Amino acid sequence: MKNKQGKVYVVDTNVVLNDIQNIFRLSEGGNNIIVFPETVLIELEDKKKILGEIGYQAREFARLLARAKVKEADHKEGYKVAKFFIDSVIIHIISKDSYETDIDKAYMSESNDKRIIEIAALAQQYYKGMKTIFVSLDVYARTFGMLKNIKTETLHDDRPEVPEFEFIKTLTIETMHVKKLIHADIRNFDPDYKPDNFAYILEMEDGNTYHAIIQNGRIELLDGNDFRGIKIKPMNLQQKFYMKAMLSNFYDLIVIDAKAGSGKTLLAFAAAMKLVEKKHYDKIIYVRNSIESLDKGADVGYLAGNDEKFRIYNMALNDTLEHIAKKLLKRKTNRDDIHAVENKILELIGKYRIEKLWPGEARGRTLSDAVVILDEWQNSSEKTTQLILSRLDNTCTAIVIGSNRQIDNFYLNKYNNGLTSLLKETKKEHPDLKMFAMELSEAVRGKYAQFSERVFEKKQ
After folding, report:
1. 29: buried, middle or exposed (CB in 10 Å: 19+, 13-18, 0-12)?
2. Cα distance between residue 428 and residue 92, in whole Å
3. What pTM was computed for the model?
4. Equal CATH topology for 2-153 and 162-221
5. What are the pLDDT digits (tens) for 44-78?
6. What is the mean pLDDT of residues 362-376?
7. Cα distance between residue 53 and residue 45, in whole Å
8. Which residue blocks in 200-310 are alpha helix, DSSP H?
9. Contacts with 185 (C-beta within 8 Å, 6 or more apart), sequence order
10. Domain 238-456, CATH homologous superfamily name and number
11. Residue 180 DSSP one-character state
12. Can you tell me whether residue 216 is helix, strand or coil?
């Protein structure tokens, strides 16, 4: 078989939970052997009951294993190797009769890591003559491996470069009447225009400055009427570009990478409500993906309509709606009245038909006539991103927001999450949909956000 010239990859649980396709990538068409320690199978079996992304990947692995054909079982002194093949993928499962590491329930994860490393060390002996590599996303597990003199790697595709973006570009141009700029082709002024140049600062030689977003390669100027009638108004230039793009109802997919406190969710709701008022859409659907919804979903049961169980996940949405409600209440006494605020929030939910959706609930659904806000998307994988976007029909618009500075999903990083994947796509032109992207780098929440950003934010 080809694997004689290939490698042996001992795979950690998190590699499967990141994406089942990693198995096929590591296999390289059957050239390499993929080894699963029995502890990995136990962990995956435990994750199958979770209804989020993690549970989905665990169940996909179970389906894959169910299709596998048994080649042989090799019984050795102290351990066994079960050998399978699935299409061109060679899978071996190794179990030991006894382990050096005792299971400590207080430190279950560490105990499992060390048992997995024992199998990786054993694999070095069993596959003598072949290069054996332990693959894990967990730096601690890789460190345990290195201490046992085992070659370790993270995923091959988990460190591609994140490209530089120039969402806002500054041009100095000859003085001209502003009418000549309206709907003009941006290439007439910027021959180096690229698809990800979504907004421009146009500086005239006479000192006047204009701001614009680009639609189909044409200049759409910002003016004083853009945000009329909106209670939540943009406070800086980046926010103005963001709000202008949403209110234009031109783009199918808007992707925002923003610092904490930059107003990304609040502005998304303010714009979405305006679009519903204008009858462009019937409702607002809020999808929030956080590490809590991924890992804790099974614990709370994922029971539809049980807001008390999901109270912790609703807090971000409730805070946003509370802020808007207080802005809409005319008298200050009402703004301080908790009952008046709660009634206003219920009024907003009813008026704009605001729905909450968790990623695990999306399968089998088709979303129509909606502004779909995908929040905390740095904690979503490419698979979850595909799942949600594939649920939207042509009557929807999607606003994807998140922060690559606040990734909480253990199985993702800033190189491979759904937010980054979509941002990369803004470098290209897509014939099937129109994209817009922006970075919100200024905290507007208040003095605490600005202080924490100044003191604790590290330069990347």
Report:
1. exposed
2. 41
3. 0.79
4. no
5. 999 988 866 788 889 999 999 999 999 999 999 99
6. 93
7. 14
8. 237-248, 264-277, 291-295, 297-300
9. 217, 218, 219
10. P-loop containing nucleotide triphosphate hydrolases (3.40.50.300)
11. G
12. coil
